[in-house]
Amino acid sequence: MRKQYVVLALALLAGIGLLNLDRVKEMPVTATPVVSGNEEADYYGDQLYQRQYNAAGQLEQSFRAATLQHFPLSAVSHFTRPRIITTAEDGKMWQIDALTGEALDQDERLTLREQVEIRSINTPADDPITIHTDWLNYHAGQQTATTDAPVVIRHPATLTEATGMTLNVADRTLQLHHQVNTRYVPQASE
């Protein structure tokens, strides 16, 4: 009697193994899984592009990233080379670039890290503004960028350094939080 149960169990295991083998053949792995800690990404994307329009149908902001990886257990998405372009009501545009970024699933905040640069992109050539920092949080719904890290602001003939800032793109205001130091740097005469 025992021999029959052993044979039955082996037959069931062999059948399950064959069914699983057929399923694996039908659904081949198309990408190498990416693991963050002990968690594997559940979806990936390359060349991500998203646009957001205001109530009048005008482009308000766009988001690009070279790659996206989403991790379901930690509810976070990781991006490489994220770029945000925002347009204020007066038509002025800002571009925010970084090497990496991440966003929590239930949050409108995007945290950008490594070589973060904010620049005005449709201003006259003699009036560009660039802001550099190590990291910042961008709040998409409010169109604000905030950081507590050191920032360096370059504008023709001035160099400003501070610790922490809040940039409100919609109304084009910049608030520097601490240790603000501005120097006049004259342009070279031609």
TrEMBL record:
List the GO cellular component terms: outer membrane-bounded periplasmic space; plasma membrane
Q: Which InterPro entries match?
A: LipoPS_assembly_LptC-rel, LPS_export_LptC, LptC
Q: Which keywords, in A-to-Z order, does the entry hold?
A: Cell inner membrane, Cell membrane, Membrane, Transmembrane, Transmembrane helix
**GO molecular-function annotation terms?**
glycolipid transfer activity; lipopolysaccharide transmembrane transporter activity
Highest taxon of the source?
Bacteria
Task: Establish whether keyword Transmembrane is in the entry.
Answer: yes
> Per the record, a Pfam family?
LptC
PANTHER family recorded for this chain?
A: LIPOPOLYSACCHARIDE EXPORT SYSTEM PROTEIN LPTC (PTHR37481:SF1)
The name of this protein is LPS export ABC transporter periplasmic protein LptC
Organism, as annotated: Venatoribacter cucullus
